[in-house]
Design brief:
The structure is a homotetramer of 210-residue chains. The first copy, chain A, is built from 10 helices and 2 strands; from the N terminus they run H-H-H-H-H-H-H-H-E-H-H-E. Chain A has 210 residues and is mainly α. In chain A, helix 1 crosses helix 2, helix 5 (91-108) packs across helix 6 (110-116) and helix 5 (91-108) packs parallel to helix 9. The structure holds a DNA duplex (21 and 21 nucleotides).
Chain lengths: 210, 210, 210, 210
DNA sequence: TATGAATGAGGCTTCATTCAT
DNA sequence: TATGAATGAAGCCTCATTCAT
């Protein structure tokens, strides 16, 4: 019985947290971070200002968690996209597909891009270590992208994490101005060159095993 | 005579501008942008608060100009470093040396890194178009790095600007967490892999001509 | 119980509002509107500057409400003065007495005059529609002055509201320079002519009924 | 010769003054008085900020002179309108026509109305005594309206100036909300009642002579 | 837990005025 | 006379944070 009551309370807290995340993301991406006040967030979320402080230390705390959360979501979606396409077998193709999904997500949702692009790697790295108000639903991390394949073929990479880090940095950074300002090229025209570069990086990091 | 008076006034204005740039950069990099107030800048520069508004629209205006200005400086220095080393002949090596210089500048000056890293490309692109309070001393642009070599050998690239853009984005983004947080690796250990990746990207973009 | 808490808070809020009205009126009439800062008002009222903004949008908002409030007070007092004097029976005399009371209030309280004179009609018209932070204590409006008499005699006026509007405009406008600058005449010497004019206006608007 | 030079300088000064009056009036009526800065005025007039102070003590000084100036213009125009219409002979009709002209001027030019209406009498009274930067071109004053007729018939008024003062106060005050807000009635519907009131006032002040 | 009135420091910006040229 | 760069006081307003309920 106590459990039931507890879980009811927990559910309510969870709900408040969710709405705080959603509304603050909405505000950060529409008004901009520094022009969004805690007052804004609270009133949009339908809670009192004081309540905000029961869940977050301050605005910066909230943003960091939001970046981690959204970074997770993006990677999770990309990871699922990769797995859903049965025709992809090599790791190289998996990474390209993974990257492609991220670019597509950003293209479709430029506010998401604005919010997270330059911090995507940060989001990925810190997702795991964020405090427990973030529920790491998927437990996604880059290694998993690699793992599935590792068993099925003989290709190894010097340091897959570092390689992915470089790739993600290049992709997310490049996307930013390409999608938002068409600089140096619109994303459609940039993609082929970007994918070529990714493949080139991967080849350079490959260790063939017997 | 009138010219003399004018130039005297102009010189004074130039001086004010310089000190405003220098002191604001100092403050942005020590206190952080959002915690630096215009009051801070003015009092540190030894001018009245109102004077600030004779030169800049607001803090954001100043920052944008500063990013362009510093981006210029970094590239200029890197370009000179490349040219000073007589043993570098191929374009590939020139780009590596250019990149290396940027990384070294960032390593030596982490406040510069913090301030500009994620916006280096922005700085490079916008330097030219910023209003005339910024004097584009060097007239540097990426093409120049490429030009010197173009005449001496037969190598061409699909789109050198795009290629450099991708490389700069990867390098500056990667540097950021590597130098500041040693993630995913300390910069010394990361460099070899980074350079490998750069060379790989360049090769993938190469068009051999006869 | 909840009601009690609520009413306690409400009472406090009401009290804050009252003191803000009183002190701001004091300052507007002594220092002048444009030379009174919100800082002045807040510190005189013994509240924090931010508190001001919980009650008013800005200084102009406060002034408009104050004009409406004071306009009400003046009319209310004048209306009571009229009714207290049992010997007044005709509508004509009621209007004269009403006007006389207003002039006397202004003569005794020149700061009130300065503050509201040229906006008395505005205050009267807008009192009712001002937002609910103003409590229209009396529900006074010009019609009431007229109503009491209408039943007791056969005199009607073309448009009593318009007539009163013209009269109030003439009286308040004229008072302003007469009381404050003795121009074109001191108020004592002006009054007879003013009352003659009022009676003349009323006669011109009268519709005799059988 | 010296005279010629002097007059040239005088003409230049006069020109500067004119443009300062014109532009400041434009700004006061579009942006509002308190939102118009001396900087605005100077830059709109095409003179340096410092120059403003060679002509006016401050913004308030300028406004007072402008009110007097515009009050003059309005009365002058109204006076001419009256005289141009040959069919008007009685003083009563002259006053009505004079009033009508003022109302028409305000109706056609609501910014003028906003600027001066509530201070029309002030403008009329003070026109003469304003310092010599204002050239009282016409030397108009209310007495002149009266004078022309005085000789031709036997009607006298107790105190024509006071009477006109009351009338102008009533008319200008009433116009303000009637023209700008249609309260208590649109100006077209108000006019008949207003004119009736004016005639009534005049009658009440009349002294028949033999 | 949740509320929201109150706080007051501190940011931004404007602007009248001066004064060296 | 005329200029306009420089001043710095002073205004407005926001907002994170607290705390009594």
């Amino acid at each position: 019985m106590n459990d039931k009551i507890l879980s009811k309370i927990e559910a309510k807290k969870r709900q408040k947290l969710d709405i705080l995340y959603n509304k603050s993301f909405e505000l950060f991406t529409t008004k901009g971070f520094s022009k969004t006040s805690i007052s804004d967030i609270a009133s949009n979320a339908g809670v009192a200002k004081g309540t905000f402080y029961l869940y977050f230390k301050d605005k910066y705390d909230l943003r960091a968690k939001l970046i981690a959360l959204k970074g997770q979501d993006i990677c999770e979606k990309a990871y699922n996209d990769v797995n859903e396409n049965g025709s992809i077998v090599t790791f190289e193709d998996r990474v390209i597909a993974f990257t492609d999904s991220i670019i597509n997500q950003f293209t479709k949702d430029t506010v998401l891009l604005k919010f997270i692009a330059k911090n995507l790697n940060y989001g990925i790295i810190h997702a795991a270590i964020v405090d427990d108000t973030i529920i790491n639903k998927s437990g996604f991390n880059i290694a998993r992208l690699y793992q599935k394949v590792r068993e099925t073929n003989n290709i190894k990479f010097k340091s897959p994490e570092v390689m992915m880090f470089m790739i993600v940095e290049m992709v997310s950074g490049t996307c930013y101005s390409s999608i938002l300002e068409n600089k140096p090229l619109p994303i459609d025209e940039l993609k082929p060159q970007l994918f070529d570069s990714i493949r080139a990086i991967m080849k350079s990091q490959m260790i063939e095993e017997d």
